[in-house]
Amino acid sequence: xxxxxxxxxxxxxxxxxxxxxxxxxxxxxxxxxxxxxxxxxxxxxxxxxxxxxxxxxxxxxxxxxxxxxxxxxxxxxxxxxxxxxxxxxxxxxxxxxxxxxxxxxxxxxxxxxxxxxxxxxxxxxxxxxxxxxxxxxxxxxxxxxxxxxxxxxxxxxxxxxxxxxxxxxxxxxxxxxxxxxxxxxxxxxxxxxxxxxxxxxxxxxxxxxxxxxxxxxxxxxxxxxxxxxxxxxxxxxxxxxxxxxxxxxxxxxxxxxxxxxxxxxxxxxxxxxxxxxxxxxxxxxxxxxxxxxxxxxxxxxxxxxxxxxxxxxxxxxxxxxxxxxxxxxxxxxxxxxxxxxxxxxxxxxxxxxxxxxxxxxxxxxxxxxxxxxxxxxxxxxxxxxxxxxxxxxxxxxxxxxxxxxxxxxxxxxxxxxxxxxxxxxxxxxxx
Length: 431
Description:
- By secondary structure, the chain is an alpha/beta fold.
- The chain has helices spanning 78-90, 95-111, 124-134, 149-166, 188-201, 213-223, 227-234, 253-259, 268-273, 281-286, 306-321, 329-336, 338-343, 376-382, 410-424, and strands spanning 2-13, 17-26, 29-34, 42-47, 51-55, 57-59, 114-121, 137-144, 174-176, 179-180, 205-209, 241-245, 263-266, 291-293, 360-364, 389-394, 397-401, 404-405.
- Helix 2 (95-111) packs parallel to helix 3, helix 5 packs across helix 7 (227-234) and helix 11 (306-321) crosses helix 12 (329-336).
C-alpha cells in the first residue's frame, strides 16, 4: 500500500506548463506522475481537482532567525544597517532565541509554500533542531568570519563539527554547507582554507558576493580585485559554490561566474529595500549561470514570501531594462523551484517527477484574483498570494492542510518569538 495519491490536480512545471495528472507518493518520494485510474491501494487520497499542484518553493538564501529583528533598522543602507542595528543585537542572541526565531520563520515559510530553505547564521545546532522537529527541508551553514587567525580557526572547527553532526540528518532533509560570510569579512587566505575544508568534507559552500557598490569599491581599493576575482583566486570557486546577491558585477565578473559554474541566489526584495541595486540576472542567465531565488532574512525584506520574490524578479528586470520580454513567468517559476534546487546542488528537489522528493504544494484556484484560468503558471507568478496555499507536503508528510499548520502550535511559536525579540532588544515590556 502506497502512502498518498493526489488525484486530478493541475500540475505546474516551468518546462511542462500546466497539465492534469495524478501523483503517487511513497516513502517520501514521487513514485509516478500521470493517470492512475482505479488500480492500487493508498493510505490517503487527496482530490486536487480545484487546485494547482506544484513543486514547493526553494528559498536559496536567508538567515531564518532574523525574523526576531523584523522591522528594526528599516530604511538604512546595508553597512550602516549591519553595523549599527543588526550586529549589536545579534551579539545578544543565544541558542534559545535562534531556535524560536527559526521556528517562526519555518511557520511563515510553510504557510506560504516554501518546502526548502537555506540558512547561514549562528547557534546552528538549534536551527537544525527546529528543522528536524518541523519536517521542513533545509540547507544549513554556520556563518564564518575570518578577520583574525584565532576567530577564523574557531569558526572553521565549529563548522566541521556541524557538518559531521547534521549533514544528511533528519532522514536526509538536512544538508550542510560551509558558510564563509563574504570577501570583506574573510581574507583570501581564509577563503582558501575554507575551500580545502570543503573538499575534505565533500560539501558545497555558500557565501555573499558583490552585494553593494560600496563593497566592490572597497575591495578594489584594498586589493585591486573585485570580490568575484578574490573568491576565484582563493580557489573557493573550484568547489560547488552558491553566491548570494551578485548585485554589483564588474567587467569580466559574469564570465568568471559562468566559467566556474558558480550558482547565484537572487534576492530582489532585500536588494531593493537596502538600496543595494538590481543584480544583472538577464546577463547571468544569458551566460548559462544557474540562478535561484531567495528572500534573505526577514530583517531586510521584511517577509519570507517567495511569491513576492517571483513577482519582483519578473517585474524589476523588465522595468529596469525597458524590455518586457525579460524573465518571463516560466523562467521565474523555475528560479523559485527547479533551478533553485539545482542552485543548491539538490538534484531531486524542485520538480514533480518520479524519483524526486515529494515536496509538493496545492494552491487553491477558486479565487477571484486567479480567475479566469487563462494561464495558471502565469497566475502563480503575477497574481497568487500566500493565502492561496492550501496544502504543503515535505518528504511525503503533510505539514499544512486547509492553510493551517498541521503539527505546529502557531500561537506558541509567535508568543515565544515575541518574548525572545523583546529580550535581545532590551525591552521586556513589549511595544
